[in-house]
Amino acid sequence: xxxxxxxxxxxxxxxxxxxxxxxxxxxxxxxxxxxxxxxxxxxxxxxxxxxxxxxxxxxxxxxxxxxxxxxxxxxxxxxxxxxxxxxxxxxxxxxxxxxxxxxxxxxxxxxxxxxxxxxxxxxxxxxxxxxxxxxxxxxxxxxxxxxxxxxxxxxxxxxxxxxxxxxxxx
Length: 170
Hints:
Layout: H1 13-20, E1 26-29, H2 35-46, E2 54-58, H3 61-70, E3 75-80, H4 89-98, E4 103-107, H5 113-121, E5 125-129, H6 134-142, E6 147-149, H7 153-163
Helix pairs in contact: 6-7
């Protein structure tokens, strides 16, 4: 979108980089099939150091293949639901590995420990989205999800500290 089409409270990528720098991982959901190349071009021009920490999530792994051809550095994420993987999870993970797509992102209710292990066996990351409640966050981290997406940063941080980090606060 052009800047004048965005609400005032939503920054462009360049404005985000100017305000927040680029010393973080950035995950973006690509909602438009034309967005990926534009995002790659913008980041390459204005924040090339962010490319290896830029995670582009798309519901079409096929579109991600085209992005991989544009950049070897960017991280690519197939965002889907288990019910949409008609060929089965093992075949999908093999396809992602073949095309150097880094991660499979599914709703937290689609994951179990066996599927997380399967993703890791193929050298892919396992991401879970919509982990809003404490118990769901703890379960996701215990089963080995590599990344969790939630609207509650404080809950994510607390669950991480208990399950992976330093443990509960003193």
